[in-house]
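Researcher: Next sequence.
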Amino acid sequence: MGVPTPPPLPEDLQALLHRLRLPHIRRHAPEVVATAKAQRWEPVEVLRALFAEEAA
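Model: Next structure:
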């Protein structure tokens, strides 16, 4: 049994991230959001994880 694939981001959010030129956030957001839901992260933790991916 493998790790389930997280659902994709909504089209409007993907388009916005593309327009803002945030490719790393766009690529990693589905996984981060799925992890955040499963682990009940605070919103600031989600933002921190996404911006860390973009900055890396």
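Model: The helical segments are 11-19, 23-39, 43-55. The mean pLDDT is 92.
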